[in-house]
Design brief:
By secondary structure, this protein is of the alpha/beta class. It has 6 helices and 4 strands; from the N terminus they run E-H-E-H-H-E-H-E-H-H.
Length: about 150
């Protein structure tokens, strides 16, 4: 079983979008028994908060529910609990290194690095463009599923 943790700053926009997109892709492919998927934050700013309403609406537009998801922060123990720790941008990766200074097992990745367009997942917190974030997360998750 591949255990994946998607990570962003607050765990209310990008990482939960990636989590639930990936869960949807896995379910549609009939691979639920091959994956365990979660998301988390590098910060404590949004702990316990639900997915940001525009992100929730964007997922719902595609028939995906994120009901019950609340933000949590990554922990040192997550390094051993997950096979892949996938950040959304370079800033997330820098913050992840506070928890895991050494990636001795090569578990830390950036989502868009699985695609033909390496770089950062668009951050809707600043742009308000949840469609761009949807496209980036979908493209990254599809590439991840096809590894």
């Amino acid at each position: 079983m591949k255990r994946i943790l998607f990570i962003c700053h607050g765990n209310i926009c990008r990482s939960p979008m990636a989590e639930f997109i990936m869960k949807d892709l896995v379910q549609k492919a009939g691979l639920e028994d091959k994956f365990y998927i979660e998301s988390a934050a590098t910060s404590t700013e949004e702990l316990g908060n639900e997915v940001y309403p525009p992100a929730k609406r964007k997922l719902a537009e595609h028939g995906i529910s994120c009901k019950g998801k609340t933000a949590r922060q990554i922990t040192r123990a997550d390094y051993n609990r997950f096979d892949m720790l996938i950040g959304m941008d370079d800033w997330n990766l820098r913050n992840m290194k506070r928890f895991w200074p050494e990636d001795s097992e090569g578990k830390i990745y950036k989502l868009m690095d699985f695609t033909n367009r390496p770089g950062d997942v668009a951050d809707p917190w600043y742009t308000g463009d949840f469609e761009a974030t949807w496209r980036d997360c979908l493209e990254g998750c599809e590439a991840l599923l096809n590894l």
